Amino acid sequence: MKRILAMVLLVGAAAIPLRADILEQILVKVNGDIFTKTELEQRQVQALRQRNLPYDAKDLQSNDATLKKALLEVTPEILVNSIDQMLLLQRGRELGYKLSDDQFKQILENIKKENKIDTDAQFQQALDQEGLTMEQFRHQIEQQLIINRVQQVEVMPKLSISEEEAKRYYDAHKEDFTTESTVTLREILIDVPALKPGQINVAAEDEAKAKAEAIRARVVGGEDFAKVAGEVSDAPSKANGGLIGPIKTTDIDPNFLKLLEPMKVGDVTEPIRTGRGYQILKLESETKGELQPFDKARDLVADKVYAEKQRVEMTKYLEKLRDQAIIEWKNEDLKKMYDDYLTSHKVAPEELPSHRG
């Protein structure tokens, strides 16, 4: 059923649920709409589970140190996102946006088709598994549609990108358009039997080292490294002729990288003592990092510039909605979390777009 909810994940648990006779502890009012303790707890549980922390709402008042730390980390963003969604929904309703019966019917048909659901009964069963009624599901779909529509009408038209902006971004972020250097290696490992910490089996050590040196002499003398690895290596890679990689050089330990830097393709190292035994490496191939020309990277540059401008413009738009809103807090601790988060995520002047296109 997770795929069924894909269209509403941007609102998801942060949607304003339908409420009837349930009296709730109100945490904040936003232009008269309420955000309650239960709604906050639902979002907190969801955020914790995304961090693989299996807490339920009943656990939220415990003195568990890990839980308290996690809640302090996730709650400020939850508060901001929830209030922002309320403001976007209110703006959309001011503009008259809503979900028609025909639109909802078409969305349902698309979801059923995508998920290979043939009957209304099967769809209802899927909703039941998610703890949703059809009315709640429609409510979430409508909220997502309204928010998307507000963004399309009031934010997206400001996101044109000029050639000058794209080139300026490219010049300032060339590392984003440079392919990474890689190396492909082959290895042969000769195990040294493990003993208790602090103990050394001198005979086994000497035997393994001598064996490794003899094997290196074979491959340096012309025998095929992959064939020899398949015959004598104690590493799992022996099944692939000792092949390892390609590996990004940025993922390699700096000390090990220094060992590889002077090597040319085809070179073979001396036996290297590792935690398991003696390892012999051959540099099979390498690729050097290369900057893509602007013309080839143009589409990727445009995507990155667009995403950044969208983030900035959306932040500015939400700041405007917040400034115009009447936000009445009933909990000062949560208000402080909210205010501190907004202060730390405010759009800096240098981030403001300098060209509208």
Overall description:
- With 357 residues, the chain is α+β, with helices and mostly antiparallel strands.
- The chain has 11 helices and 9 strands.
- Mean pLDDT is 87; it is low at 1-21 and 352-357.
Q: What's the structural blueprint in terms of helices and strands?
A:
Elements: E1 26-30, E2 33-36, H1 37-50, H2 65-94, H3 101-114, H4 120-129, H5 134-154, H6 163-172, E3 178-179, E4 182-191, H7 202-220, H8 225-232, E5 243-248, H9 254-260, E6 272-273, E7 277-287, E8 290-291, H10 294-324, E9 327-329, H11 332-344
Antiparallel strand pairs: 1-2, 1-9, 3-8, 4-5, 4-7, 6-7
Largest beta-sheet characterization: 4 strands, antiparallel
What's the CATH class of the largest domain, please?
Mainly Alpha
Percentage of residues assigned to helices: 40-55%
CATH architecture assignment of the largest domain: Orthogonal Bundle
- Please state roughly what percent of the residues sit in beta strands, choosing from under 5%, 5-15%, 15-25%, 25-35%, 35-45% or over 45%: 5-15%
The average pLDDT value, as a whole number, equals 87
Features of the shown structure:
Triger factor/SurA peptide-binding fold; three-stranded antiparallel beta sheet; disordered N terminus; 357 residues; four-stranded antiparallel beta sheet; elongated; 2 domains; Chitinase A, domain 3; disordered C terminus; alpha+beta
